[in-house]
Amino acid sequence: MDCDVVIVGGGPAGLAFARSLEDSGLGIVLLERAPLEALATPRFDGREIALTHGSKRILEQLGAWDRLPADEIAPMHAAKVVNGDSPFSLNFTAGEGEAQLGYLVPNHRIRAALYDAARNQPGLRLITGAEVVHARSGATGSRAEVLLSSGEVVRARLLVVADSRLSTTREALGIGADINPLGRSMMVVRVRHELPHGATALEWFDHRQTLALLPLNGNLAGAVLTLPEDAARRVAAFDDAALGRDLTRRFRQRLGRMEVVSDRNVYPLVTTWAHQFVSGRAALIGDAAVGMHPVTAHGFNLGLSGQALLAAEVCDAVRRSMDPELPAALRRFENGHRAACKPLYTGTNLLVRLFTDERLPARAMRHAMLRLGAGLPFVRPTVRAMLTH
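RE: above sequence
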């Protein structure tokens, strides 16, 4: 099977990239290992995605935003970061001219909207149940190749890897990555609470646990609890009533009594950084390129911005004649995306290490940072800009 672009992975990054090439005139094959039903009607997975204004614009351009259920889009007006029992906190509100800091949307709703936008796209062929067993990135004058478990070979002028942060396709291409299992897991569940949340997200670095509340519409929130892996599994095994009581206690009744209203999901935390984003005729996007720690909520947004940058470079190469121009376009994508991701990836990892270190010097430093940051006029606008754009 020959095509212009083959995409491995039908998650948000892969589907968004396919949509971004809608008017390019390129023939696209998108390979997804899951069955079609999992793409068309993805299950609730507990993840509430904090979208920046830039990500909202991208989803609008792709025709996905209007496909989201309006009652599942929750405006986030403010965010608050606290540490243990410290009286100091960092508070962020929307910038001038903006009604909200960002938007919270369930991950499965975004996936469904992107699939619905892409499913009838001319020039796009979607193959589900497709297991990739090997891949070659190709070189100048040749094509990239993907071998499927069925024995079929897909050849393309461009291979885009968007499968996962533990990408087997990336590994098959010989692209190394820093893979960092953190020994902790994140449990996510929806709760109903007594007191209003004021559309304010909370990130609370408490002793031996990290807590987050993501405000949804009404008196609903996504509760996020990060613990050592064994402890997270034990808590997730509680029945609904016991889990509600446990979360109420952990959040110190900040929003009153909590009642569990959804299934709970547990995700082991792993961060990844690919040593290259480009190799030959292959490019990495989404988690295959950068797997962020979720604490700053930037992973999804970087995935959307990265695919948009790659699509813009590919479309420009098509206008100039794709084959001679493709290597230069991929270099520009790699340089631009690495420059955008590296500070956020490095800074987030440093933040997590500092705020989860239980030693006394680290705890004192956290207290000092919050006290200093709350009083410096340039801190909040700088962080706000990072969070929203």
